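For the sake of transparency, this paper describes our internal protein records without simplification. An entry from our holdings is shown next, in its original layout:
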Amino acid sequence: MALAPGTRLGPYEVVAPVGAGGMGEVYRARDPRLGREVAIKVLPSAFSSDAERLHRFEQEARAAAALNHPNILAVYDLGQHDGSPYIVSELLDGETLRERLNGGALPVRKAVEYAVQIAHGLAAAHEKGITHRDLKPENIFATSDGRVKILDFGLAKLTQAEPGLAELSALPTKPPDTLPGVVLGTIGYMSPEQVRGQTADHRSDIFAFGAILYEMISGQRAFRGDTAADTMSAILKGNPPDLPVADRYISSALERIVDRCLEKSPTARFQSTKDLAFALEGLSAHSEAGVSRAIVGRTPYLNNARLAWMFAALFLVLSVASLVLGAVGYLQRTVPAEAPEMRLEITTPPTSDPASLAISPDGTKVVFVATFEGRSLLWLRSLDSASGRPLSGTDHAVLPFWSPDGRSVAFFADGSLKRINIDDGSTQILAIAPAPRGGAWNRDGTILFAPSPGSPILRTSASGGEPTPVTRLESPSQVGHSFPQFLPGGRHFLYYVRGTPEARGLHIGQLNGSEPRRLRDADSAPLYVSSGQLLFVAQGTLFAQNFDPVRLALTGDPSPVAEQVMVNALLNLPAVSASSGGAIVYRAGTARGDQRQFIWFDRSGKEIGKVGNPDSATVLGPAISPDGRRVALYRTESGNTDVWLLDLARGVLSRLTSDTANDIFPIWSPDGRSIVFTSTRRGSFDLYQKLATGARSEELLLASAQPKIPTDWSRDGRVLLYHSPDPKTSADIWALPLDGDRKPLPVVRTNFEERDGQFSPDGKWIAYQSNESGRFEIYVESLPGPDANVSGKSLISTNGGSQVRWRLDGKELFYIALDDRLMAVPIGFASNSQALEVGTPVPLFATRVGGAVQYANRQQYMVSPDGQRFLMNTLTEEATSPITVILNWVGAQKR
């Protein structure tokens, strides 16, 4: 019985039926947890008692889930509903290859394009030891955006023992609608060894692939008969009819590939699907050579001498013309036209994130982050259009990057990596990324991204899947990898390393995990353009330097391209993007391009007072003094980052530190006499202490290989709280005793990222943020000690959060939610115990502290002792500088 719309299968809600087959019924459903639509295949209840069918259904789920490739249907989940198992997978828009073939043969170029994608998908499965064994047009899906997906691994056999999957290789094999227990697959696409009931391996899939490729380019099945027995006999003894080579201009190379796939003996076929894919990629389905060979070899009327001479003369004329045109083209390519460099400007709405912009690979469109009706969204602007448009479904988006075909844009929002289809506006969640640091997308459907500041570069599929690391943090010199970018070929990639002076800068890695190497020091993430240059920003100037993508080496000297380029100092990210063709877009401005001011707000969000003047420098990490008179902060001015003090009564800024290193993240001692901060003056990020009066030099408190970010100081003055990234455990919270041997002690240490710890006023609890749920949430955990009666932790936030603060009496917690609203949570204790009682979070007002969760970087606001006022480091003026487009800059540089 079909499931009605609204029926729930676990967390999934059925929307509508899609179709049915021998292995089950398929429904469109919605996953409310991730806000995405999925496909659910349910085994009909009538077959639930069939142990064999249940085994095969489970086998399909496990085999598909073991794979992660853009040309294989992604499987998300497996469950049961009323005794019937179901598989949850990605929802595809398009049609099966069978439906496309019902209209006849495909264009040869399209058939080869599909074949390459199918071969890549099969190669990924074969590398995992998985043979499909039922490959046919019904199990191949062509999406509306041109991607090809292999479906239904229900007859798959694992040919290698792999942990957790080896038991599947022994499952019985019984295909639907064929001869029970004798043959496996679908008649017409089975290999000879399958017809005989012999063992099938990856070469059996290659035979089925050959039958499908034959059908795509001819419009006819390779093996067919009046009965099943006739078809099976044709597979064993016959050969398919000759391909219509002359009629369809099929190259002899393509014909040979089909013939080799359809060899009767497995040993005579391609022995590797990778080799098959390589051979297909080398084809030019409409090459002149292929057409010429087809005509000469297949048209007997050319024996007529007169016609032969006419064709020879025509060929000579065309050849001469071709040589002339080719020479002209060669000269045009090798001697560039003196086209002048051109610069034009695109006006955009205001933005709090000017560095989030990306030009499409073909250089015709730009996406950028800007404000629309009070919300931060992605906007799309075609260069031939007079205006842009916001893209629905991209709220809170940051750091967009394009798919190679220009049809989709990936971006980060709400703690996740997402993608949006430009044509229909559909969005999909691909992976978890709580505090992202950039991404890149290659032509094989591989996406690289950095999910958080202290992470390596991860790899996932453009259709989603479990991410895996492709770089490794080298402890203790490296503290984070970010902003990957693919080089030509899609196997090597650039990325930026944060760490010690010897380690930081531009590195080159490989998808196969081979040893990376450092290319050069750099202040910010680089860009590669296909004209052979590497772009990078130093001291606000955009430079280009020649780069050899084969030797992976820089040559020559850098030359300037643009000045006063905006850089997000927090991310080491310039507001620059380059297309494959070389067009550059950038925003000009100083620092992050935003203007901030400290503003007092009441609990309703009403502004009740300003402090000082708007500041265009990068002002971050504010901390209010215990007496409420001053704010310590760090700001970047003229390229130097130091700790400053802001007098709240007079609104006057004064510099506390002046070292050439970076001095960041200040916090106050409980008595207000000292300030602890992080500095890179010894190479690593170490903890220093300085008197708030500025007297005497800084005192080194803790030096170690791992970076250390101070976040709080206990009220009794005895312990500092800090968090530190770790290559093995992401980021952890530590305590530094300020007496005795000063040996750091772990406070919260897991495999997730814990940050920004805050002592409760009584010193018995710690509030912090962690991404253990897949996005940053706020937690409170009891601290060990003689007065602690209860251990464990409590979840405080309900829909993501960062930047937690306590009220002075400990009866309320505040944090910033995903939508940038300030939230208040009542905190109490049970009357008969020390157990924590957590109230419901209540929104107070929308803040403008900028990138509250996406770029979470310690608290950007402070709370008055009574919890009635809030001093916000407010974005008062979003960046309004236009996007500048540069054309023909390569030729201008050479001249």
